[in-house]
Amino acid sequence: MDKITLGPMPYMSVMPTLLVGANVKGKANYMTAAWATVACMAPPMVCVALNKTRYTVKGIDENKTFSLNVPAAKHVVETDHCGLVSGAQQDKSAIFTSYYGTLKTAPLAEECPVNIECRLFRSVDCGSHLLYIGEVVEIHADRSCVVDGKPDTVKTDPIVYAQSAYWHVGKPAGKAFSVGKEYKKK
Amino acid sequence: MDKITLGPMPYMSVMPTLLVGANVKGKANYMTAAWATVACMAPPMVCVALNKTRYTVKGIDENKTFSLNVPAAKHVVETDHCGLVSGAQQDKSAIFTSYYGTLKTAPLAEECPVNIECRLFRSVDCGSHLLYIGEVVEIHADRSCVVDGKPDTVKTDPIVYAQSAYWHVGKPAGKAFSVGKEYKKK
């Protein structure tokens, strides 16, 4: 074993690249975020960590709704742009085409193959960041990306975020709840 | 636009494949989990959602510590195996070699190139799952995987989890906080 300590830091191996959608002062805004995951199965919930100073925070606090939009790799420039500029300085409502679903106040980005509509369940104050936990009210997806009622990973072509870089999803490494059956006790 | 609604479900585009380490009744146990991300920058925190019925839950509640271990793709069989069997039925302490760091009660899997030691900050009851938020106390990594003080994505070779399948990280899709500068207003 040749381990070294790196000190405490906000590290995760791989993360989803997402656009958090919120209406701020009645206008759609999208910010890039990667600190997100599923928080619960029943009811279905997701969570996303946002710096308290973000413009998006105002919108979520106001409407108690938000969206998580999954951009495809072909939109990596627009996606990264939404992380470089703040809605406080620049109107980002025209970068993507917005539409609204069940909640009416959570803008959904049409160009993203998957859109997750969320109703705020709870926000947890962790320090610099608020962890927003939202109940998934509806999932909208491009018909062309759906296989067996779910977004297909290859067709969706989501962007993996890791260590300040964007990545494509690569080759399969095994079927979950299956490949482990090959395990032989040492 | 050709969108269809898929109904509410616990969907996320891509997720990290991890082993959650906890001492249960004084013995190391590892369970496979993917519903995890960073929760805060300062102080650094991570979160992971666990079904309330999991054996691991007992250990985290008892010790108020846990670990998130990042297996490399070459250990996908052992990793998936830890998600197929419960510590309640089978002793999983010998699947990986455990060592302990700062916290003394959060087992770290030596074979995993990165180990995140966490002290429980809060658990949020979301329904079927508890969202455990932990402060990162230390990060341990294989010396051979570290570049500029951080785990390198290619050298670490983490497993991406998406839609019941494991994937390798693929080709680069752009530099974050950079590629967006190419954006031209439509």
User: Rg of chain A, please?
Assistant: 18 Å
Main sheet of chain A, how many strands, which sense, barrel? Answer: 7 strands, antiparallel
Find the biggest chain interface.
A-B, 108 and 108 residues
What coarse outline of chain A follows from CA principal-axis ratios?
Answer: globular
**Average pLDDT over all residues of chain A:** 97
Write down the oligomeric state.
homodimer
What are the defining features of this structure?
3-stranded antiparallel β-sheet, 186 residues, mainly beta, 7-stranded antiparallel β-sheet
Describe the structure in your own words.
- 2 copies of one chain form a homodimer.
- Chain A has 186 residues and is mainly β.
- Chain A is 12% helix and 46% strand.
- In chain A, the strands form 4 sheets. The first copy, chain A, has a 7-stranded antiparallel β-sheet with strand order 4-3-7-10-11-6-5. A 3-stranded antiparallel β-sheet of chain A has the order 2-14-15, with no helix packed on it.
- The first copy, chain A, has 3 helices and 15 strands.
- The model of chain A has no long low-confidence stretch (mean pLDDT 97).
- β15 (165-175) of chain A pairs antiparallel with β15 of chain B.
